[in-house]
Amino acid sequence: GAGVSQSPSNKVTEKGKDVELRCDPISGHTALYWYRQSLGQGLEFLIYFQGNSAPDKSGLPSDRFSAERTGGSVSTLTIQRTQQEDSAVYLCASSREVNEQFFGPGTRLTVL
Amino acid sequence: DQQVKQNSPSLSVQEGRISILNCDYTNSMFDYFLWYKKYPAEGPTFLISISSIKDKNEDGRFTVFLNKSAKHLSLHIVPSQPGDSAVYFCASLAGNTGKLIFGQGTTLQVKP
Asked: Choosing among A4, A30, A37, A46, which should be mutated to test the B contact, i.e. which has the most B CBs within 10 A?
């Protein structure tokens, strides 16, 4: 399909380990966003990319979180030294127009 | 300091009746609002949006109303169908980056 894809769909890790979450946006979409949804909560903005640069990283909760985007396409969200409170569904979205974002299915991260 | 609030965590309506989902916001600078629908294990999908220059936007069975003075918007679904059962998120576009501020979501159940 031509939608946003994310991998893995599920990730279980032990506290203290690093994880990498991947997002493949819709082809031609220059903007890419990462959000997360913790249990019982709404979606929380993490970071925004325009092309390969990230003009808005204001939502990253700590310096353990980082993200990069290469070639204006694929993005990777990395969480170092994972903690139990990092458990959430991590959602990626891409857009061509600023007011319409298309979301991927998310990666469910469980930190034991 | 939740800037977008959905105070009803759940709503149950009978098939064929009207569903009304409510959303309040606190930031008077917000000028574009969106509703997303989310099924379990899927990413949110865009439903309908409204700009602050309008007070109503309609798309088929879905209508969004905006009351700027009250900082309140609502989504009306009529007639409601069992396939409408999902979590509905209200969101506001924050700034010109496309970053979305989401409410906590309302789970709608439409009973046959």
From this structure: A37
